[in-house]
Amino acid sequence: MAEWIIRGGSVAGPRGVEFADVAIEAGKILAVGRDLNITAERTIDASDLLVLPGIVDVHTHPVYLDDLESLPITAAHGGITTVIHFAYAKPGDGLMDTIHRFREEAEAVSILDFGLHGGLFDPAHQSHEIPLAIDVGVTSHKMFMTYAKLGWMTDDYQLMRTLDILGRVGGMGMVHAENGLATDYLEDKTNAAGEDPLDVFVATRPAILEAEAIHRAIAMAQVAGCSLYIPHMTAQLGLEVLGRARALGYRVFAETCPQYLTLTEAALREQGPLVKIGPPLRSESDRLALWQGLATGLLDTIASDHAAKAKTRDDDFFAAAFGSPQAETMLPLAYHGGVGGNRLSLKRLVQVMCENPARIFGLYPQKGVIQPGSDADLVLFDPHANVQITQAAQHSNASYTAYEGMSVCGAPVLSMQRGEILLENGEVHTDSRRGRFLRTKCGNATIADLKSRQ
Ligand SMILES: [Zn+2]
User: Fold this and answer.
1) Is 37 domain-assigned?
2) Cα 195 from chain centroid?
3) pLDDT band at 432 (very low <50, low <70, confident <90, very high)
4) How far is the CA of 120 from the centre of ligand 1 (A)?
5) What is the rounded distance in angstroms from the CA atom of residue 397 to the CA atom of residue 77?
6) 3-class SS at 337?
7) Cα 59 to middle of ligand 1, angstroms
8) Count of alpha carbons within 13 Å of 35, Cβ hemisphere only?
9) Which distant-in-sequence residues (6+ apart) come within 8 Å of 242 by Cβ?
10) What is the extent of the structural domain holding 112?
11) What is the pLDDT of residues 229-274, one digit of tens each?
């Protein structure tokens, strides 16, 4: 006898979408099939619903308004069941101290299972700890090629050195790819000329300087023999660079985010600082190119880049922080724009939001798939629900959503993590703190492997 059986849903399994039942026992998926002849303690009727693997969001920042406790709660309301947070080691912080601190705190307060990426602000004094981080299951490490004025930028010497270390120990490099010194110059020039920062924001961070940094990072990773993951790709020009690297067989994975798939630079006029994000929102043709990139397999993942910052529409644009709350709205927006907009099949949506993130970071098949033996992490999604997105209905601590008033078709109605109900009737069960630390393992997935499953 199983603990749960979910009957009659359209199940997005590894081979595609089919009507099936899902039986769950001891936190794992026991069986998947049509009209399963299994009795269960409890039954969930999933007719008219989609049964998806829990969403694996590999790009979250739990160090702002939403922290290690509250970020997983807003994420869970959006159908996310696994997160990989960036553990930011600021200058003066040790990498391992930072990783231990994030892990201990998250184990105490997180409702979601979580992994960690290292985030190196000062690789000259932190990269030597990378082999130790790999040993404890933190195998992907990010550096900034931008934000020089903020003191966050890694120069090419330290980037090359760190990718070299990562390559030797089987880790994965990650970069925020924008040319930091060039964008700082452009910003200084426009400030000196007294131009409105809102007017020139995108022009001081043009797509070609993002594409240049992507190319530079790919080149260095290739020299180092290191695999690379590029978060938050935004532009057609970046996709062209990525396409060339893929054609050459380089091991480069790439992500985009719901904000770049949904909004364009036109939103800056309407929302000002609320949509100040880096890299910036771009043109409509870039937005459409990103959907195309997901459909063709050039882009591998959608992740949220959730970074809830305190700001209002009326703040000084130049002084306002980069970042926005994104986790809770990610699945509805991606479903609405992708499947609803006939840009992605449901199978492909599940690949880019569940399977590929789990594969790239070595969590597959424990996470990211509905098949016997996998963790019973599921989201039941109503594709017919019409929902208007409002800040009032969100659970982030941010005072706004970038999608206020937008209507989308599709909403998560129930989720489970390891066979226990997480989201139900719009509420997330937060009573038991039960997130577990997940060791990542970058190095198993290959581009060819991801492509062959499309
Ligand atoms: Zn980010």
Assistant:
1) no
2) 34
3) low
4) 13
5) 13
6) helix
7) 6
8) 0
9) 214, 218, 230, 233, 252, 254, 293, 298, 299
10) 54-363
11) 999 999 999 999 999 999 999 999 999 999 999 999 999 999 999 9
Q: Give the whole-angstrom CA distance, residue 430 versus residue 395.
A: 13
Q: Is 383 inside any structural domain?
A: no
Residue 131 lies in a domain: yes
Distance in angstroms (rounded) separating the CA atoms of residues 214 and 106: 32
* Structural tokens at position 232: 């938050």
- Name the amino acid, one letter, at 59: H
Number of domains, the chain? 1
What predicted TM-score, i.e. pTM, was given to this entire model?
Answer: 0.98
Total Cβ atoms within 10 A of residue 313: 13
Query: Residue 96 C-alpha to ligand 1 middle, in angstroms?
Result: 20
CATH number at residue 312: 3.20.20.140
Dist CA 352 CA 368 (whole Å): 10
Q: Is residue 45 part of a domain?
A: no
Calculate how far, in angstroms, residue 169's C-alpha sits from the geometric centre of ligand 1.
24
What's the first-to-final CA gap in the chain, in angstroms? 35
What pLDDT does 433 receive? Answer: 63
Residue 37 in tokens: 């002849």
Residues 6+ apart with CB under 8 A from 452: none
Cα of 186 vs centre of ligand 1, distance in Å, is: 22
Q: Based on C-alpha coordinates, what's the Rg of the chain?
A: 21
CA angle, corner 452, sides to 449 and 454, nearest 5? 115
What does the alpha-carbon distance between residue 355 and residue 270 come to, in Å, rounded to a whole number? 35
